[in-house]
UniProtKB/TrEMBL annotation:
Domain Transposase IS701-like DDE: 20-179
Record-linked Pfam families: DDE_5
Native organism: Dendronalium phyllosphericum CENA369
Phylogenetic lineage: Bacteria, Bacillati, Cyanobacteriota, Cyanophyceae, Nostocales
Protein name: Transposase
Keywords, alphabetical: Membrane, Transmembrane, Transmembrane helix
Length: 180
């Protein structure tokens, strides 16, 4: 698939090319651009649909970028942070935020799930539990002039497995504060 992108966008997308082999980069580039363009859930199928290649013969190659290709999500996060800093915080203090989110998931194949306090439904007098995956996100907090508010721009997300899951694997459990 040939992508004709404006030079400014192409130069930013190209910064991520060093994370992938030449063969995998073609699919990774399509996935990155499709993830930016899609208004639906950012699944591979939605991305391929918005890119106009949902019925491509070798669609599974795009799925393999995420499931089999070797690349560093930590390095990708570092590149993204550097881009965000250069655009939104060229000078001055850097303010970051950390948030944890529970992704409500069910099923036998979801291994790292745990039972957590639901911060939305719980109150001081009522404790509500929810089952799912806990994700920790690190965000750059920047004031967007035209929006007249501070936006949280996530650049790194990590799965924080439950204590029970870590015990099953005989891994040391990390609390939320241990992650950072």
């Amino acid at each position: 698939m040939s992508l004709n992108l404006p030079a400014g966008i192409a130069s930013i997308i190209q910064l991520f090319s060093r994370l992938f082999s030449t063969r995998v980069w073609k699919q990774a580039e399509v996935l990155m651009i499709g993830a930016i363009l899609t208004t639906r859930k950012r699944t591979v199928s939605s991305i391929l649909e918005v890119m106009g290649i949902a019925h491509e013969k070798n669609f599974q190659n795009y799925h393999r970028v995420l499931s089999r290709a070797v690349w560093s999500n930590l390095e990708a996060s570092r590149i993204l942070l550097m881009i965000l800093l250069s655009i939104f915080v060229p000078s001055g203090p850097i303010i970051m935020g950390i948030d944890d989110t529970i992704e409500r998931r069910k099923g036998k194949k979801i291994k790292a799930k745990g039972i957590y306090r639901d911060p939305v439904r719980s109150s001081h007098s009522q404790f509500v539990k929810v089952s799912g995956l806990r994700w920790l996100a690190v965000m750059l907090l920047v004031e967007i002039p035209w929006a007249q508010r501070v936006w949280a721009l996530p650049f790194f997300t990590v799965l924080a497995p439950s204590e029970r899951y870590n015990q099953q694997l005989k891994h040391r459990h990390k609390t939320l504060t241990d992650w950072f």
